C-alpha cells in the first residue's frame, strides 16, 4: 500500500519536472518534444498504477499509449519538416508569418 503511494508521488514529481523543463527550455524544438514525451511517460505510469490500485482493467492504458505514439510521430514529422524548410530547429528562426 505504501509502495503504491510512493509510485503515485514519484510519477507526479516526474510530471512536474517535465513541466519545468518544458517551460524553461524554448530554444530547440527537439528538447521541447523530448520533455513532452517525458511528461506523457510519467502520466502513463500514474495512470497504470491508478488503474491497478482501483482494480480496473488496464485496457485503457493501451488506448493511451496509442494516442501517445501518434502524438510523438506528429511531433517528429513537424520537426523533420521544419528542418527541411528552415535548416535547423531553432524557434528564433521560425516565424508564423512565413507559413
UniProtKB/TrEMBL annotation:
EC number(s) reported in the record: 7.1.1.2
Transmembrane region(s): 6-23, 35-53, 59-83
Location(s) in or outside the cell: Mitochondrion inner membrane; Mitochondrion membrane
Catalytic activity from the UniProt record: a ubiquinone + NADH + 5 H(+)(in) = a ubiquinol + NAD(+) + 4 H(+)(out)
GO molecular function: NADH dehydrogenase (ubiquinone) activity; oxidoreductase activity, acting on NAD(P)H
Record GO cellular component, one term: mitochondrial inner membrane
Recorded topology in the membrane: Multi-pass membrane protein
Highest rank taxon of the organism: Eukaryota
Entry keyword annotation includes Electron transport: yes
InterPro entries: NADH_UbQ_OxRdtase_chain4L/K, NUOK/Mnh_C1-like
UniProt xrefs under Pfam families: Oxidored_q2
Gene3D superfamilies assigned to the protein according to its UniProt record, in alphabetical order: 1.10.287.3510
GO biological process, one term: ATP synthesis coupled electron transport
Alphabetized PANTHER family for the sequence: NADH-UBIQUINONE OXIDOREDUCTASE CHAIN 4L (PTHR11434:SF0), NADH-UBIQUINONE OXIDOREDUCTASE SUBUNIT ND4L (PTHR11434)
Similarity comment: Belongs to the complex I subunit 4L family.
Record's function text: Core subunit of the mitochondrial membrane respiratory chain NADH dehydrogenase (Complex I) that is believed to belong to the minimal assembly required for catalysis. Complex I functions in the transfer of electrons from NADH to the respiratory chain. The immediate electron acceptor for the enzyme is believed to be ubiquinone.
Protein name as catalogued: NADH-ubiquinone oxidoreductase chain 4L
Organism: Anopheles vaneedeni
Gene assigned in the entry: ND4L
Amino acid at each position: 500500500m505504501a509502495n503504491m503511494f510512493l509510485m503515485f508521488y514519484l510519477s507526479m514529481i516526474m510530471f512536474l519536472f517535465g513541466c519545468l523543463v518544458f517551460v524553461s527550455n524554448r530554444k530547440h524544438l527537439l528538447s521541447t518534444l523530448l520533455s513532452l514525451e517525458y511528461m506523457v511517460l510519467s502520466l502513463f505510469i500514474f495512470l497504470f498504477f491508478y488503474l491497478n490500485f482501483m482494480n480496473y482493467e488496464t485496457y485503457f492504458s493501451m488506448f493511451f499509449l496509442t494516442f501517445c505514439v501518434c502524438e510523438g510521430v506528429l511531433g517528429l514529422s513537424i520537426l523533420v519538416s521544419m528542418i527541411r524548410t528552415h535548416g535547423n530547429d531553432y524557434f528564433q528562426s521560425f516565424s508564423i508569418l512565413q507559413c
